[in-house]
Amino acid sequence: MNDFAPLSWLDMLGRLALAVALGASIGMERELSEKAAGLRTNMLVALGSTLFILVPIQSGLAQQEPSALGRIIQGAITGVGFIGAGAILQKNRIRGLTSAAAVWISASLGIGIGLGQWKLAMTGAGLALVILRLMKLLEQKITQNL
């Protein structure tokens, strides 16, 4: 069980750096596909989500009031929904649903990393990249064969 005690500076720095790196991996895939919500967006979303988790841990709020983290996670997910909506609605047309989902995944990676679940976040990032890249290739092959 995690007691959510404040972390050392090095642990915090490691979590923040990993969040930026995993956000960059998702964002780079979107960037290479020339899609909305690319590199910087996904990096910032992952970083911001991690910070939303680390601030109450570092301040002691997470230990004093364990339900605070749940409320913060809910708020972060809601906020990311607005970013996703911005990625979807372009020029009065609905586009970019996959980019919005990638932003949502970047937020979840940041939350996981902030909570110390870096193995889970790395696995999630790997699976997201497989879905974004390899499934796109598979879709293209299927479409060509029809």
Largest sheet: 2 strands, antiparallel
How much of the sequence is in beta strands?
under 5%
The low-pLDDT segments are none
Outline type: elongated
Order of strands in the sheet with the most strands? 1-2
Euclidean distance between termini CA atoms? 52 Å
- How many DSSP helices? 6
| Rg (CA only) | 17 Å
- Count the domains: 1
Q: What does the average pLDDT come to?
A: 92
Short description:
The protein is built from 6 helices and 2 strands.
Map the helices and strands.
Blueprint: H1 9-32, H2 39-59, H3 61-64, H4 67-88, E1 89-90, E2 93-94, H5 97-114, H6 118-145
Antiparallel strand pairs: 1-2
Helix pairs in contact: 1-2, 1-5, 1-6, 2-4, 2-5, 4-5, 5-6
Tell me what the structure shows:
By secondary structure, the protein is mainly α. The chain has one domain (9-145). It is 80% helix and 3% strand. It contains six helices and two strands; from the N terminus they run ααααββαα. The protein has a two-stranded antiparallel sheet with strand order 1-2. Helix 1 (9-32) packs antiparallel against helix 5 (97-114). The longest helix has 28 residues, at 118-145. The radius of gyration is 17 Å and the shape is elongated.
